[in-house]
Structure formats: structure tokens, C-alpha cells
Amino acid sequence: MPERTPSEAGQRVSIVIPAHNEEGNLSALLASLAGLEFPREKLEIIVVDHESNDATREVGLRGGARVLTKKGGTIASVRNFGAATASGQLLAFLDADCTVAEDWLSKALPHFADPRVGAVGSYHLVPLDPPTWVRKVLQKQIEARPRVAEATWLPSGNMLIRREVFWECHGFDESLTTCEDVDLSYRIAQKHKIIADMSIRCWHHGEPRTLWEAIQKELWRGRDNFFGIFRHGLKLVEIPSLLLPLYFVGTMGLFLASSLLVALNGGGKLWCITVSGAAFFSPLLAMAGLMSVRSGALRYLPHFAVYYAAYFLARGLAPLYKWQNT
After folding, report:
1. Which of the residues 59, 151, 214, 281 has an alpha carbon 20 to 30 A from that of 306?
2. DSSP per-residue letters across 7-66
3. Whole-angstrom Cα distance, residue 68 to residue 47?
């Protein structure tokens, strides 16, 4: 094994894994954690069984994890519940349907040698099995990001935080059903640096395979997109993610309405269709073109355009989805 850095040798890491009916995924994650290039005596694995009715608990115990049971609450409360029992100086959060590379910790921990760094992680890699166009587009977006950069947020499924920073920021907001990772990241960033390093490899096997799956996931993920600002305050960096979905829902509505009116009236006022269509499609094509250039995949321009249309429309409709499913 390579010689460990001082940060690796001195830190105890507690990994918190929320799990609801994850017997089919958890064993793969625990197997990948067992293969980490990291001293086992300095690693604590905590699985929080969130009202599972399958063999999640048994799988966790067989995989060497300490298994806790949590009833009720949001996934943010499940993560906080596990963190409250953790003994490590660093808290690491993973999703149960992920797997990590052998050097996952050895790539992450050296960043904490800088005392200004409060959190470290990376955006999930997308398994290309099955190799659908949606998964390829998602992975191309990841590849277009900087290899190492100071970030504004990290996904809670691949995030490491100093223990004292986590509790200084009061942990995840348990009132949020989704977007709790963005909210916590913004609060951490008020006082500390956040580092995103693509070499901290974590694959999310639950990424959507089809466009319909992507729409369903974004309807869910965007439920609390607006509500986090009441906790961390409005950040300039998040304004596009708040306004663009509303813009595309509005322009798509105008395009469909003008098309219907023209059809019902038997023609005329085609300028309505032209203007509303341009307002909807032009930004989509511009963003798709930019991403295809940045990712070095020009042939994926139409794929990016279709995906972005689905993404922004789903995000724009997510508050209505939340209202209907509360």
C-alpha cells in the first residue's frame, strides 16, 4: 500500500448510510467499502435502517456495519440520526445505491489538511450499464466539470464533512424532503471552503436510465427547490436554478397555447407561435450546444437539448408535484 499522508493517518471516519428497503443495493456498497485503501480500525460504518420491511438490517450486519433503526422523518433526519451517534472526526455520507473506488478516502482526506476546508466530495459518476443515451448524457455533464474546484454545493450521497463543521451548521435541515444537500452546502460555504474533486469516485447506480425515469426523479428532487432559501437565504449562484424552470414552463405553456389558438382559428397570428417557440427552444439549444462543446461530444447536442427540456419542465412543475403528493 502507498504511504499514508498525515491527514489519512490521523483521522477517524464515520460513514453514514441511510437505507430504506435497500437489500438489493447495500451489499455492493459495503463490499466496496471493505476494499478501501484505509485502515479498518479508523473506519466506522453506520447504516440507518429507515422503516425497511426487507432484509436491509441483516445485509448491513453481515457487511460489518453498525445498524441503527429510525422511524419516521425525512431522509435529512435519518442522516442526522446516524451522525449523532458517530465517533469520527470526519462524517462521510453515502447513498445505499452507490459504490466507491478503492482510493475514495485516500483521495478525499488530503484536502482536509487545509483548515479552511469544511467539506469535500464530488458529483456522482453514472454507471453506463445499461448504456442508455440518458445515462451517457448525465455522465457527459459530469465529465465537463473541472477536475478539482472550489464548489458551491455537494451531493449528500458523496459528501465528507468535518464533524465540528457539521454541527456548527446544525446538520441537515429536517424540514426539507429534498435539496437538503444544497441547503447544507450553502450554509457550510458561509464560513468554510467546499472542495469538489472528481478523483473522489463514487458511482450512483440509481441514476435514471430513461427520459421518463429522469422526469420522475426531477419532479421528486425539485420538490423543495424553493424552500431552502428560507433556511440559508437567497444565493446569487442559485438564482438560475430557481428561475430557469419557471421560465421554461411559462414559455412552453405560451407555445402550446398559441399553437392551439392558431389551430382553432384556422390560421393567422403565426407570429405568436414563432415568438413563443423561439423563447422556449433558443435557450435550450444554446445550453445544449455549450455543454456538447465543453464535454467534447458534439454529436450529443440533440440529446442534451431533449434532456434539458425534460429536466427544466420537471423542475418547474415540482412544486405542484409536492402539493399533490403531500
Report:
1. 151
2. HHHH--EEEEEEESS-HHHHHHHHHHHHT-SS-GGGEEEEEEEES--SSHHHHHHHTT-E
3. 6
Q: Terminus-to-terminus CA distance in the chain, angstroms?
A: 51
Q: Which cell is 272 given?
A: 405568436
pLDDT tens figures, 216-225: 999 988 877 6
Q: CA–CA distance from 155 to each of 57, 179, 261, 264, 283 (Å)?
A: 25, 9, 43, 47, 26
- Nearest CA to 150 out of 20, 63, 237 is that of 237
Distance between CA 208 and CA 43 in Å, rounded?
A: 31
- Which candidate, 102, 64, 58, places its Cα nearest to that of 203? 102
Residue 162 grid cell:
468535518
Rounded to the nearest 5°, which phi and psi values hold at 134? -65, -45
What is the mean pLDDT for each group of 10 consecutive residues in the chain (326 residues)?
43 96 96 96 97 96 97 96 97 98 97 97 94 96 93 95 97 92 94 97 96 94 72 71 89 90 73 89 96 93 97 90 52
Q: Which three cell numbers stand for residue 253?
A: 405553456
Longest CA pairwise span in the chain (Å) = 76
Q: Which of 149, 139, 292, 150 is nearest to 203 (CA)?
A: 139
Strand pairing partners for 66?
46
Q: How many CA atoms lie within 13 A of 241 on its CB side?
A: 19
CA dist 240 and 138 (Å) reads 19
| Set of cell numbers at residue 154 | 455537494
Cα–Cα–Cα angle for 307, 310, 313, rounded to 5 degrees: 145
pLDDT at 38: 95
φ/ψ of residue 46, rounded to 5: -120, 115
Give the pTM.
0.88
DSSP label at residue 93:
E
The residue type of 15 is: I
